[in-house]
Specification:
Shape: flat
Pfam family, one: DAGK_prokar
Subcellular location: Cell membrane
Order of helices and strands: HHHH
Main location: membrane
CATH topology: Helix Hairpins
Oligomer: single chain
Bound molecules: adenosine-5'-triphosphate
GO molecular function: ATP binding; kinase activity; metal ion binding
Radius of gyration: 19 Å
Structural class: mainly alpha
Distance between the termini: 68 Å
Organism: Virgibacillus phasianinus
Largest sheet: none
Strand content: under 5%
Helix content: over 70%
């Protein structure tokens, strides 16, 4: 059955509201996600104060997005595993550990890029 334009737009906005629900759920139930949001807020304030350039902002936004996406995907994997296999199982452990590894990789990358962006600017201010 073919959807007309109105139906397609309604479907898109419903899909967006489900996605927004997911983000709200992350904020409510995931402490790590809230910590990442707090870190994002602090980094954005630091970026404003240190007058990052356009390209530096673009890099920072991509890196912040990478960490938040990794954390969200990790939580989705955790919840899926808990739903499918609530008991202890070696494969459940491996899957969860790998998903957690993706967050760690993203966080390390973000830390390194944060150092590259901010340390020279702080150096000029304080030294
Ligand atoms: N069903 C399971 N079987 C075997 N090991 C598990 C299982 N569930 C969790 N684990 C182990 O415990 C670790 C933590 O899993 P858990 O689901 O508690 O994540 P979490 O501590 O809530 O993670 P986060 O802090 O990212 O939300 C996993 O990485 C895995 O090593």
């Amino acid at each position: 059955m073919r959807l007309n334009l109105k139906d397609k737009n309604r479907k898109k906005s419903v899909g967006f509201s489900y996605a927004w629900n997911g983000i709200v759920e992350m904020c409510k139930s995931e402490r790590n996600f809230r910590l990442h949001l707090l870190a994002t807020f602090l980094v954005v304030i630091a970026g404003i104060l240190l007058c990052l350039s356009k390209i530096e902002w673009m890099i920072l936004i991509v890196v912040i997005g990478m960490v938040l996406v990794a954390e969200t995907t990790n939580t989705a994997v955790e919840k899926l595993i808990d739903f499918l296999r609530p008991d202890i199982h070696p494969m459940a452990k491996i899957i969860k550990d790998i998903a957690a590894g993706s967050v760690l990789i993203a966080a390390i990358m973000a830390f390194i890029i944060g150092c590259i962006l901010f340390i020279p600017k702080l150096y000029h201010i304080f030294i």
